[in-house]
C-alpha cells in the first residue's frame, strides 16, 4: 500500500462534497474511490458510502460518511479525506458538522438542473466558514445537459470566471482525476500545531459492541496515539484510546493520527452521552486546553409520539432510541403516556422527512412495530403572569383563561421554480398563510421565490403539493425565522363520548371546524361497525365543531322467527333496541392503528 510521505500536514487535504438532492454526490464519491484504487473492482458497488439499506433504497444520503483516499500528483502522494454529505434540508446539521472538519468544499451542480435551493444554502454555509470552494458541473454526459449555461450560472454565483468551473461526469469518470488534482492544488493543507497538546474535534460517532463509542474526529493539534489516556474537555469524560485509525471506507487501524488528519478513536465507553458531537478530545494529563469551537445543538422543530404496538416492547423502544441518538443529536425524546396507546415517547425531529427516516430505522434495524401520532410543531406559550413555556404536545395545552399569547414557529422558504409556474407556486404559498418576502431571477427561465411561512403548514402534504403545482421542477430550502403570535386552540377527537388523547391536535381557531370535519370523516372510515351507533366528534373544549356517525351493525334477530306472529316479532325488536341502548352506555370502542395512520395522511390545506 502507498504510504503518505512526511510531513503529514503538507500532504493532507480535507474536503467535502456539497450539493442539492440527487445532483450526484454519492456517485462522484464512488468514482473517486474507484479511480484512486481505494477500493478494488470487486469491492465497488453503487453508493458505496451509503452504508444503510434505507439510503440506497431511497437514493438519498442520510448520514455524512468520511473516507480516506491516496492520490499522487507530480510524484507526491497526498492523503485526501473526503466527507460525503446529505442534500436534504432536514439533514443540514450533518452538512454543518462536516464542513467544520474541512478546508475545502466541492460545490456540485447538475448540468441538467442548474443551481437549486439547497445548492445556495450549502454554498453559503461553506462561505461562512471561509472554506475554499471548488465549483463543479456534473452529469455533462447526458444529452439534456446545459453545460455551458449552467457553468456560467455557477461562475456568476461563486464570483469566478466560467473557465474555472470544472466539468465532470461522475457516472463515466470523465474529469474526476482532474478534479482531484484541482482539490490538491486549490485546497490549503490543514492548519494546526504538530508539537502542541492534543486537540481533536468530534464531528460524529457510532457504537461498536466490542469497542464502545467510536468517535469520528478531526485532529487539529498534536497527536492521537493508540493507548493514550483521553479527556473530553466539555463533557469531562475520561477514556482510553482503545483503537485509532482511518476510514478506507471501512475502519483501518493505525498507531497514531497526526495533526490535520481525519479518522476515528474507539473509547470503550458505553454511554453515548459521554462523547457528544462538537466536544474536544485531549490527553488526560493536558491541563488548560482551550476547547475547539463546537456546534450549535440542533433544535428539533417537529414533535410526535412514538408508541410500540406491543406494550412489552417499551424498553426495547427506549434502547433503540438511545442507539439512534448516539450519532443523531437532532433526535430528542422523553417518556409520555397516552390513555389510548399506553406508554411511549415524545420525540423531536428536524422535519417530517427526518421523522419518517427515524421511524423506518426503528422498524427495520430494531424490528419494532410502532404507532406514530399526529406531528406537531413546538409553540411558545406566554401565561398571564408573564412566564413563557414551550408546548409540543396537545396534552399539555393550558386552559385558555391562563393564556396571554401563543406563538408559532415560522420559516423562511426559498423556492426555485421555472418561470412558467410562478403563479401556481405563489398561490400555493399564499393559501398556506405565506407572506411574500422577495423574488428574483437566478437565470432567464428560473426564478427564486422567498416566502415566510408557518412551520405547521409544512408538516404534511406540503412538499407533494409544491411538486404537483410545479410539475416536479421546484426545489425547496428553508431556515428557522422565529416565533409569531397566532390564535390557536386544542382540537379533541371524541369517540363514543371519550376523548382520544393521541388524536388531539393544535390548530388555528378559524379553521378548526374544517379540520375537525376532515379528521372525523377519516376516523369514521377506519372504525369497524359495532352493534351500537358510535359518534365521532371533533370538539374545542365543550363545543362540538364536527360530527360523524358510525352506523350500528344490524343483527337479524328475526332470522329464526317464522310464521305470522307479529307480537313475537315486536317483542324481539324491542329487546334488541333496549340492548343497543345498554351497549351504547357501557360499550367500549377499540380504535385500530389505521385510524392513527389516517390522521397522518391528512393534508394541510385546511391549515393545520
Question: Explain this structure to me?
Answer:
With 608 residues, the chain is α+β, with helices and mostly antiparallel strands. The protein has five domains: 9-186, P-loop containing nucleotide triphosphate hydrolases (Rossmann fold, 3-Layer(aba) Sandwich), CATH 3.40.50.300; 199-283, Elongation Factor Tu (Ef-tu), domain 3; 302-373, Alpha-Beta Plaits, CATH 3.30.70.870; 380-485, Alpha-Beta Plaits, CATH 3.30.70.240; 489-600, Elongation factor 4, C-terminal domain (Alpha-Beta Plaits, 2-Layer Sandwich), CATH 3.30.70. The protein is built from 13 helices and 32 strands. An eight-stranded antiparallel β-sheet has the order 11-10-16-7-8-15-12-13, with no helix packed on it. It has a six-stranded mixed β-sheet with strand order 2-3-1-4-5-6, with helices on both faces. Strands 22, 23, 24, 25, 26 and 27 form a six-stranded antiparallel β-sheet that branches. A hairpin with a 2-residue loop joins strand 31 and strand 32 (543-550). Helix 11 packs antiparallel against helix 13 (593-600). The radius of gyration is 29 Å and the shape is globular.
Amino acid at each position: 500500500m502507498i504510504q503518505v510521505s512526511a510531513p503529514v500536514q503538507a500532504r493532507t487535504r480535507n474536503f467535502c462534497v456539497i450539493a442539492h438532492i440527487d445532483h450526484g454526490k454519492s456517485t462522484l464519491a464512488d468514482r473517486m474511490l474507484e479511480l484512486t484504487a481505494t477500493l478494488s473492482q470487486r469491492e465497488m458497488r453503487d453508493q458505496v458510502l451509503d452504508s444503510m439499506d434505507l439510503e440506497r433504497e431511497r437514493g438519498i444520503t442520510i448520514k455524512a460518511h468520511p473516507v480516506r483516499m491516496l492520490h499522487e500528483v507530480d510524484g507526491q502522494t497526498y492523503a485526501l479525506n473526503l466527507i460525503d454529505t446529505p442534500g436534504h434540508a432536514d439533514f443540514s446539521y450533518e452538512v454543518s458538522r462536516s464542513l467544520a472538519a474541512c478546508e475545502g468544499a466541492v460545490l456540485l451542480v447538475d448540468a441538467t438542473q442548474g443551481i437549486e435551493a439547497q445548492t445556495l444554502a450549502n454554498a453559503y454555509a461553506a462561505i461562512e466558514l471561509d472554506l475554499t470552494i471548488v465549483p463543479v458541473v456534473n452529469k455533462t454526459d447526458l444529452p439534456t445537459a446545459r453545460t455551458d449555461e449552467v457553468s456560467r450560472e455557477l461562475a456568476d454565483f461563486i464570483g469566478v470566471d466560467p473557465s474555472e468551473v470544472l466539468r465532470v461526469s461522475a457516472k463515466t469518470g470523465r474529469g474526476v482525476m482532474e478534479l482531484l488534482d484541482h482539490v490538491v492544488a486549490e485546497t490549503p493543507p490543514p492548519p494546526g500545531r504538530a508539537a502542541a497538546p492534543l486537540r481533536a474535534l468530534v464531528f460524529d460517532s457510532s457504537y461498536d459492541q466490542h469497542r464502545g463509542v467510536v468517535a469520528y474526529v478531526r485532529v487539529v493539534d498534536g497527536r492521537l496515539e493508540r493507548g493514550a489516556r483521553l479527556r473530553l474537555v466539555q463533557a469531562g469524560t475520561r477514556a482510553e484510546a482503545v483503537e485509532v485509525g482511518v476510514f478506507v471506507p471501512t475502519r483501518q487501524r493505525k498507531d497514531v493520527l497526526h495533526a490535520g488528519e481525519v479518522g476515528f478513536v474507539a473509547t470503550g465507553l458505553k454511554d453515548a452521552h459521554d462523547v457528544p458531537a462538537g466536544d474536544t478530545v485531549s490527553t488526560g494529563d493536558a491541563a488548560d486546553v482551550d476547547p475547539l469551537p463546537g456546534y450549535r445543538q440542533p433544535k428539533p422543530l417537529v414533535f410526535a409520539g412514538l408508541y410500540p404496538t406491543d406494550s412489552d416492547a417499551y424498553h426495547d423502544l427506549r434502547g433503540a432510541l438511545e442507539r439512534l441518538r448516539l450519532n443523531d443529536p437532532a433526535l430528542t425524546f422523553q417518556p409520555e403516556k397516552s390513555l389510548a396507546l399506553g406508554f411511549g415517547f415524545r420525540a423531536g425531529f428536524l422535519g417530517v422527512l427526518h421523522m419518517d427516516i427515524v421511524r423506518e430505522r426503528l422498524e427495520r434495524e430494531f424490528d419494532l412495530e410502532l404507532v406514530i401520532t399526529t406531528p406537531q410543531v413546538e409553540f411558545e406559550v406566554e401565561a398571564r403572569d408573564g412566564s413563557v413555556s414551550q408546548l409540543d404536545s396537545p396534552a399539555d395545552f393550558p386552559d385558555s383563561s391562563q393564556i396571554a399569547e401563543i406563538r408559532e414557529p415560522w420559516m423562511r422558504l426559498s423556492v426555485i421554480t421555472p418561470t412558467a409556474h410562478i403563479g401556481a407556486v405563489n398561490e400555493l404559498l399564499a393559501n398556506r398563510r405565506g407572506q411574500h418576502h422577495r423574488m428574483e431571477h437566478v437565470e432567464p427561465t428560473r426564478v427564486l421565490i422567498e416566502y415566510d411561512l408557518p412551520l405547521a403548514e409544512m408538516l404534511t402534504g406540503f412538499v407533494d403539493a409544491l411538486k404537483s403545482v410545479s410539475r416536479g421542477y421546484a426545489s425547496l430550502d428553508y431556515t428557522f425565522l422565529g416565533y409569531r403570535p397566532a390564535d390557536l386552540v386544542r382540537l379533541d377527537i371524541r369517540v363514543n363520548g371519550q376523548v382520544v388523547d393521541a388524536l388531539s391536535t393544535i390548530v388555528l381557531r378559524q379553521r378548526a371546524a374544517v379540520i375537525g370535519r376532515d379528521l372525523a370523516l377519516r376516523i369514521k372510515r377506519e372504525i369497524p361497525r359495532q352493534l351500537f351507533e358510535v359518534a365521532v366528534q371533533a370538539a374545542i373544549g365543550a363545543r362540538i365543531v364536527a360530527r360523524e356517525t358510525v352506523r350500528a351493525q344490524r343483527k337479524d334477530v328475526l332470522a329464526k322467527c317464522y310464521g305470522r306472529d307479529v307480537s313475537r316479532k315486536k317483542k324481539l325488536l324491542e329487546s334488541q333496541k333496549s340492548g343497543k341502548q345498554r351497549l351504547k352506555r357501557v360499550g367500549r370502542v377499540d380504535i385500530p392503528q389505521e385510524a392513527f395512520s389516517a390522521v397522518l395522511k391528512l393534508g394541510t390545506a385546511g391549515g393545520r
